[in-house]
Amino acid sequence: MKVFGLALISFLGCSSFCQAEVTFHEGVVVLRTGVIVSGKISVASFQLALVEIGDTRQVYPSHLIDKIRFYDEEHSINRQFVSVSSDLTKEFSLYEKIVAGAATVMRKPKSSTWQSTKVTVLDHEQFEYYVMWNGEIVPINKTKKAFFDEWNIMISDQLASYVKEVHLNLYDTADLIRLIQYYNQSVRHKPLLAGL
After folding, report:
1. Structure-derived torsion over alpha carbons of residues 20, 128, 94, 74, reported in degrees to the nearest 10
2. Range of the domain at 64
3. How many Å apart are CA 19 and CA 51, to the nearest integer?
4. CA 57 to CA 27: how far, in whole Å?
5. CB distance 25 to 73 below 8 Å
6. What is the tens place of the pLDDT at every residue in 126-169?
7. DSSP of the chain
8. In the chain, how many domains are there?
């Protein structure tokens, strides 16, 4: 009975996904093997991507994908997705990269399929945000402690000053993203200061 129930849920999920409106963008998928696939790309869910080349559609599961890049004309934004094996889920998932640097901010939708509504970098309602730090992916709301405990004193003091100066609320996702952007800029400039 459990097998039948699982099969039914999978079928219903697939049929609703297959009937959904899928948006494609010109771009590339880089596979883990190093093969680059160019065509019209749709990140249909955080578990797979569709690539349309001519009349053919190919499905690439997230464990075969390294990264995806395309220009989203509707939102006038370059979008990049990476496939990462998370300690949280023990499987590969596609995450959209929002902020790159020593601490990388990524997101994926709360639902199983990407929404077609207007996307903004700080859309708290549709997305769950994560930070990749030292090879680990953690929910953004659990990174606050790391910002002040794991970094050296100079950076920690600098971050604390920045939080006070611009009145950041460390319980707000948008403010945490601003802090991470500031941290990435500080890390980038730190070697230059150390060399003086």
Report:
1. 50
2. 23-194
3. 17
4. 14
5. yes
6. 788 999 887 788 888 887 666 666 666 667 778 888 889 999 99
7. -HHHHHHHHHHHHHHHHHHS----EEEEEEETTS-EEEEEEEEEETTEEEEEETTEEEEEEGGGEEEEEEEETTTTEEEEEEEEE-TTTSSEEEEEEEE-SSSEEEEEESSSB---SPP-TT-TTTEEEEEEETTEEEEGGG-HHHHHHTS-HHHHHHHHHHHHHTT--TTSHHHHHHHHHHHHHHHHHHHHHHT-
8. 1
Q: Is residue 92 part of a domain?
A: yes
Hey, what are 119's tokens? 């996307």
Q: Residue 14 falls within a domain, yes or no? A: no
Please report whether residue 17 resides in a domain: no
Whether 182 is covered by a domain: the verdict is yes
Residues 82 and 110: beta-carbon distance below 8 Å: no
CB 151 within 8 A of CB 160: no
End-to-end CA separation in angstroms for the chain: 70
Reported as a single tens digit per residue, the pLDDT across 95-132 is: 999 999 988 999 988 775 555 454 554 566 778 899 98
pTM for this predicted structure: 0.75
